Amino acid sequence: MGMRNGLIELAFELKQRGIFDNLDSVLDFGSQELRITFSELENLFLKIGKPKSILKKYQVLKKFPKGKRISTKILWKDLGFNKIFSFDINKQHKSLNYDLNDPFLDKKFFNSFDLVTDFGNNEHIYNLSEAYKTLYKVCKKDGIIWCFQSVFRGNGFYNFDQSFFETYAAYNQLSIVYSAYVIHVGQYDQFLIPCNKDLLNAINLFNVKSIYITYVFRKKLEEDPKNIYQYGLNDTKQNFTTKFIQREGLSEKFYIPSKSISYYKKLAKKGDKNSIFWLRQLGIKY
Predict the structure, then answer these.
(1) DSSP string spanning 6-29?
(2) Disulfide-capable partner of 121 in 30, 50, 180, 199 (CB 3.0 to 4.6 Å)?
(3) For the residues of 75-104, what is the DSSP string, one character each?
(4) What is the per-residue pLDDT across 5-53, written as a single tens digit (0 to 9) for each?
(5) Which of 36, 28, 32 has the alpha carbon at shortest distance from 67?
(6) In the chain, where are the structural domains located?
């Protein structure tokens, strides 16, 4: 498992856009490794004004794809994170041994991390829904959940698409900071394109190695994650509309249950947290 050049470039872009500002802790699901050439990584560090001396620890990447693998923990440190952990039953790179098939009960990690990532880990866990509940549980309120998963020619139990992540956002009240399809060509090269199915359909599948999808979410509440049911976005009992907000110069999208404003006002006056949340996002007093 690892971050290839497309994801690493996106990490630097999110850093430049201020998405990582004031974030101190990160948790990778899986003992992730860097999969990028030294010259590519050097250019990315130079773009954000880092001195060349920072690259000494990455010298082994000059032999990439051969040579020793480097943990993503080193990159996170250089991008400003101080508390860096990973979960993996293989215990590589000093990862903590948790089986994500099981309900996660270690409360010392609940609402603990500013950034939580799933870079091609959770599709290898058969109990997928439990893994994504844990992803949500360990992320702090206002923290970032960043997922990267396979759409086409993956090697796990599951493939994904927009519907999974859009529903995950809607039911758990996550804002969507960024989304893209990731086209994998050659051995390690990745290219990000807008998350648009019409654009995806224009790609000749014979010319790509695989296709992935990536979503960057912001956690809005501290509630327990909800159970998600297929076709949930079309469920007549819980319809959703979308709203855009501006944060730090970047458009974020989040879903709002489409019920009447008077309905939310009535519940908000009784102290209902969800109703208060939605009204605040809409800028409505109650």
Answers:
(1) HHHHHHHHHHHTTTTTT--EEEEE
(2) 30
(3) HHHHTT--EEEEE-TT-GGG-B---TTSPP
(4) 999 999 999 999 999 999 999 999 999 999 999 999 999 999 999 998 9
(5) 36
(6) 2-225, 239-286
Say if residues 80 and 202 touch (Cβ distance below 8 Å): no
**Which backbone phi and psi does 78 adopt, to 5 degrees?**
-75, -15
Q: Which long-range contacts (CB under 8 A, 24 or more apart) does 124-129 make?
A: 124/156, 124/157, 125/100, 125/101, 125/157, 126/101, 126/157, 127/100, 127/101, 127/102, 128/157, 128/158, 129/227, 129/228
Burial of 276 (0-12, 13-18, 19+ CB in 10 A): middle
82 CB-near residues (< 8 Å, 6+ apart): 24, 25
With tokens 């010392």, the residue in question is 108
CA dihedral of residues 176, 177, 180, 186 (deg, nearest 10)? -130
90-142 pLDDT tens trace: 999 999 999 999 999 999 999 999 999 999 999 999 999 999 999 999 999 99
Cα 243 to Cα 229: distance, rounded to the nearest angstrom: 22
> What is the architecture, at CATH level 2, of domain 2-225?
3-Layer(aba) Sandwich (3.40)
**Distance of alpha carbon 103 from the chain centroid:** 20
